[in-house]
Amino acid sequence: MTMIKGGCQCGAVRYEITAEPMVALHCECLDCKKSSGSGHITAGAFPEAAVHIAGTLKTYASPADSGAMTTRGFCPECGGRISFQSSGIPGMLAITAGSMDDPGAISPSIAVYHKRHVAWDHFDPALPVAEAAPQRG
How far is CA 87 from CA 27, 71, 114, in A? Predict the structure, then answer.
């Protein structure tokens, strides 16, 4: 069984994931850019039941381009971004690669919200892109 471990910078939040990602991606939406301070965030989306978090996350919710509510989870001590969820995809919890003990544990298969791409943020040119978030179903 796969086991991915990680947490925030200060160690107040730790997690273990006991499933393969449903998808791994680069997200180029405005919220991910703002919270990462970069051109995108890389994350793996997992079944929520497979993610076991020790510690308490502070959350911030806002509407996404799709109209769904997106809730981001951060460490209340160091501010490290750990997770995000979309009301449009119940049962999914995305975990940021940068919070993983081994960020190479996932490998992005798509870049989403590519309509918001900035020219200086380079990806593998063979990586598929979606102009917005893929629709579930």
Answer: 17, 8, 21
Q: How far apart are CA 70 and CA 14, in angstroms?
A: 21
Yes or no: say if 110 and 126 are a contact pair by the CB < 8 Å rule. no
pLDDT at residue 134 above 70? Answer: no
Q: pLDDT by residue (tens digit) across 5-25? A: 999 999 999 999 999 999 999
Residues spanned by the domain of 108: 4-116
pTM for this predicted structure: 0.92
3-state secondary structure of 106: coil
Task: Give the whole-angstrom CA distance, residue 74 versus residue 124.
Answer: 28
- CA of residue 126 relative to chain centroid, distance: 21
CATH number of the structural domain spanning residue 21? 2.170.150.70
b/e code 17-46 from CB counts within 10 Å (16+ = b):
bebebebbbbbbbebbbebeeebbbbbbbb
Residues 6+ apart with CB under 8 A from 20: 2
For tokens 């499933």, what's the residue? 19
